[in-house]
Design a protein that fits this description.
binds glutamine, purine biosynthesis, 9-stranded mixed beta sheet, PRibForGlyAmidine_synth_PurQ, Class_I_gatase-like, cytoplasm, nucleotide-binding
Length: about 230
């Protein structure tokens, strides 16, 4: 499997993502936001950062980048598409995932380690984990509060599309462990088809002991298990 890691103006987690793919033994390449042909890739990763300075809203300008037509095409064809942090914001702005990422309830940029519970371990992104497994991952965002209207939220929960939920170290879900005020403690979701993932925590920053943890590696190893 070969992955494209898209570099938008203002991306800052692109090289971390590339490193994570390499640690998992996957082929990945950086591609510019101006790329209009991703046909040589099997999947695409939209990294975190501050694309276009987060002007208007995070992701609101990046969704118009030339590469996004190809991202949509890959998503429609069922290829894995992953958006982390700013990448998640871009996927919601582009309409590839429902809902929105609003300003954190505390109105602060929050950079710390949190725990998330794996709610679905049967997806191309999570099959190296167990359902209910608790991961320790870093977050670093000012606008990570997941919001969706009540009907959408009910659908997401009913269809099992919440993939990661903020929790305590033992998997306890409570507002005390919700770092940004996300509805239902949602940290990551998938689309209906299960091939487009958006998440606020950074798995690519937790793939080696030297980074302080390896709990994010499972996401990349899961993709490596995928047979194309
Ligand atoms: N690390 C990131 O991707 C930051 C996301 C976004 N720019 C925010 O602060 O909400």
């Amino acid at each position: 499997m070969r992955f494209a890691v898209v570099q938008f103006p203002g991306s800052n987690c692109d090289r971390d993502a590339l490193f994570a793919f390499q640690v998992a033994g996957l082929k990945a390449e950086l591609v510019p936001h101006t790329e209009t042909d991703l046909s040589r890739f099997d999947g695409v990763f939209l990294p975190g950062g501050f694309t276009y300075g987060d002007y208007l809203r995070p992701g609101a300008l990046a969704k118009f980048a030339p590469v996004m037509g190809e991202v949509e095409r890959l998503a429609r064809r069922g290829h894995p598409v992953i958006g982390v942090c700013n990448g998640f914001q871009i996927l919601t702005e582009a309409g590839l995932l429902p809902g929105a990422l609003l300003a954190n309830l505390n109105l602060h940029f929050t950079c710390k380690e949190v725990h998330v519970r794996v709610e679905r371990a049967d997806l191309p992104f999570t099959r190296a984990y167990r359902q209910g497994q608790v991961l320790r991952l870093p977050i670093a965002h000012a606008e990570g509060r997941y919001y969706a209207d009540p009907e959408t939220l009910e659908r997401l929960e009913g269809e099992g599309r919440v993939v990661f939920r903020y929790s305590g170290p033992k998997g306890e879900v409570s507002e005390a462990y919700n770092p940004n005020g996300s509805l239902n403690g949602i940290a990551g979701i998938v689309n209906e088809r299960g091939n487009v993932l958006g998440m606020m925590p950074h798995p690519e920053r937790a793939v080696h002991e030297v980074l302080g943890g390896t709990d994010g590696l499972g996401l990349f190893l899961s993709l490596a298990m995928e047979v194309v």
